[in-house]
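Troubleshooting: if your tokenizer reports a length mismatch, compare your output against this known-good record of 738 residues.
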Amino acid sequence: RALAEGRPTPDGGLHEAGFDGPREVAFVFPGQGSQWTGMGRELLRTSEAFRTALAECDEAVHAETGWSVLDLLLDDDARLADAVELVQPVLWAMEVALAAHWRALGVDPDVCVGHSMGEVAAACVAGALSVRDAARVICRRSDLMQRLAGRGAMLATELSPDQARGLVTDYGDKVCVAVENSPGATVLAGDPDVLADIARELERREVLCRTVKVNVASHSPLMDEIRADLLDRLAEVTPAAPGTPMFSTVRSAPVDGAVLDAGYWADNLRQPMRFADSVRQVVRERGPVFVEVSPHPLLGRAIEDVQLDAGVAPTVVTTLVRQQSEATATARALGRAYALGAPVDWHRRYGDEGPRVPLPSYAWDTEEYRAAPEPAVPSGLGERRVRLSRLGVAALGTGVTARGASPVPPVLYLQAVAETLRDLVGAGPVELRDVRIGGALPSLAEAAATTLVIGLDQGTDGAYGFRVAALTDGSAEPVSCVTGSALARPGVDASAAVTLDTALTRCTEYVPGAEFYRRAEARGYSVAPPLRAVRQMWRREGEAVARLQMPPADAGAVGALEAALLTMPASWPHGGGAAQDTYLPLSFDRVLLAGEPTGEFWSTARFAPDADGEGGRCDVVLTGADGQVLADFEGVALLRSGGAPVSVTEARRAAQPVSLETPPVADRLIIHTATVLGTTVDRVDPRRPLRDLGLDSLMAVQLRRILKQDFGVEVPTSRLLGDESAAAIAAGLAGAGV
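Known-good structure output:
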């Protein structure tokens, strides 16, 4: 079903193929930073080509260093993160072995491109260096680099190459531009103290930057100290003519094997990496599919940025993703490469002969065994349309304004669904389940010119699927407001009743009605006079009980329900800055509408925060003066929006007919995030910051561009990489009226 709906699955992927002819393939080998504990283990078990190539690299590294690549890959306690003399040989071996795996899948490179230490892997895969010579280069290079550990630092920035070069001119030889990754991404290297000053200045200018987790300033003048020793130790390296062309990011030009001598590898360590310019030339000359050959994506977003800057649609494929199934990742990558136009030798992938299936011994009969479909039972439901002005919204005044936004209360839609169902099945309590609120709701100011479209579809067990949309005069498309299911309930379970005395015993802090509304205003809520029904309140952290007086009669049941739900803020955290937090409702697990308040009634709210503090769930029960349950809201999902302004401008439009599948802002953000991370939507936890999900600075730039295209809103990369959860960012987008 997921694939039919155009969504990837945990064990599969999808990509749109065009009608262009086959493309060339460029293998791209990144530098340090893609390592992770456990990488390569699954492919060691499942890929003979990977296992054979890695064993050959392991033997060559062992001859140089005395330690084993395979042992480190299988050791959970290996010091790969902070030991350059270990991590660089291991990553080189991984990249060479992954290239062998790609060849076994049926994909061969037409050109090889390397980035920093990745050029050693590129030269080896291209055939310009033997495995033994490549091991000499990577092992002796990284061993000498250890002499300089701790004396330099590197800073990744969102400066263009020209901006970066202009910046470092003020610092002499203390800082240089070490890497030019894309039109908007560079890396500076040099003195740690100077880089710290530059970082503070860039942050003041709101330019994204971050310290790279290395302790050696590669591609900087500091490398001159080991140049002579490196030339001496690599003198025996004997390059050869490559079988596959290689494009140098040191010289930003194609190179033949003869130049890849000791002097070249000394330049590779000292000179800046002109990656952006190199990719730009490869795009112009070859227009290939770029395959990033590494344990985790590092350069894919930079390549895409260069392609987009050149006016070319991105054609980038990554190989593995940290902590994800390697077999699944490579299979998905193969499919994407093929869809983008990479030639695939399927005989190499599946062998010369596929499995043989015996033919049936008898001719096929023409008798149809498929069960005949049952005739459809007319539900007689269809759609009901009603003007909002007939539902008493005018009596609500400006309703409840949350940081500048005055949407039509969601309870109005729920009450309208309940009344529609009662018209069908008769009077009585109505239960609503799995209620989801749309990404943006019409404002009360639009109510007089708005028609509700209420649809009911008969389901099973007496339940009806419902959907409510709002159609503003002059608009051809409705706005999706709420969806869920509804069923009639013969009565209320007595066990659901709330014992007010018990709740009042727990809630010992007394809050007068006027003080409650003052505190609500501190959170950004402004309550119109018709809804100021709270007379007294008692609270504690996580729970509140309010005594309310029925709002004016023309506000009706909707006014009473909305006023009662305002008990929730009193149950939310109040310590420190939490007293200013606004929470936005996203959904209701269950809503029981059993009766309408009259005169005096009570509202009890209990709040349980999420583990990450970004939201929580609330239960609210309304009871009459006699203790009878009038309404019960279970599992009200809330999202904390902090002090961010919330506004409702242009509502999100839903394609007609009103559909349950219209993705809200949060879902679209999750889909875009999964696309950028190279994963599936089920692996994106909206409660966590995006950086904790694996988003890096280059990915953030890509995601920012996608969000700009989809929502028309510029989201700073610093926000995407900040402490906000995905859900909080989505709430901010929804509040901006996207």
